[in-house]
Amino acid sequence: MPVVREAAVVGLALAVTGGVAYVVWTYVSSGEKAKQEPEKIEKETMKETAQKAPEPAQQTPTIVTETKATGKQVLVLGLEGAGKTSLLHCFATGSLEQDVAPTQGFNAVSINREDLQIEFLEIGGTENLQPYWKRYMCKAMVLVFVVDSSNAAQFPLAKKQLHELLETDLYLPLVVLANKQDNQGACSITTLHEALSLEEVGDQRKLFLIGTHVRKGDTGVNSAVQDARDLIIQMVRDGR
């Protein structure tokens, strides 16, 4: 499959190769090719908070103590059940040999590559955690928004949440992962692009829409997840 990070693309392009589809609006790569060296991967789970949703009776969400990122931060968001935690597990370990529990608070995965440390920070997608999303937008170099492409009923809410986030930063690079492409009834990349109205998010940001899937029992990372991870890492490199 063509290596995305070496491509200099301006305008709209649609590529479908090896089961991965991605849409590129405006992205000019620095041309720097990341070295394919073994990675030192550290996985840590931040203290989970907000284990239970607040009662409807005027109860505010639990206060979360913010931690200072030691490296470059990639913010990973999406509605509950989109598959964020499973994707991060594959980013870190290269496989998904067993089910992982959904994140009920915060989950951080650090990937070290040469002189670059990238922290993938996931915030749970439940309703009581969504108010925290915007608090971390200012710390992010890239926003990764994960959508369950087989659950069309959630597209309107996903669109609403995504557009509200993007209003806080008109230039923050965005990677939308159309996850669960292997599920029956999963929509196409084009359909999800239209459902999320991605043409409205602005011409000034780097924007990618990538089809992904992870399956329990896979002993190696599939090409879709590998490409998504490598693209995100290269975007952080280019943004330093």
Automatic annotation (TrEMBL):
UniProt-annotated binding residues for Mg(2+): T85, T103
Compositional bias annotation for Basic and acidic residues: 34-50
Keywords: GTP-binding, Magnesium, Membrane, Metal-binding, Nucleotide-binding, Transmembrane, Transmembrane helix
Keyword Membrane: yes
Alphabetical list of SUPFAM superfamilies matching this protein: P-loop containing nucleoside triphosphate hydrolases
GO molecular function: GTP binding; GTPase activity; metal ion binding
Pfam family, any one: Arf
InterPro entries according to UniProt: Arf-like_GTPase (IPR053254), P-loop_NTPase (IPR027417), Small_GTPase_ARF/SAR (IPR006689)
Transmembrane segments: 7-28
Region (Disordered): 34-61
UniProt-annotated binding residues for GTP: G78, L79, E80, G81, A82, G83, K84, T85, G125, N179, K180, Q181, D182
Gene3D superfamilies documented for this protein: P-loop containing nucleotide triphosphate hydrolases
Matches recorded under SMART domains: ARF, SAR
Coiled coil regions, renumbered to chain: none
UniProt protein name: ADP-ribosylation factor-like 9
Species whose genome carries this gene: Hucho hucho
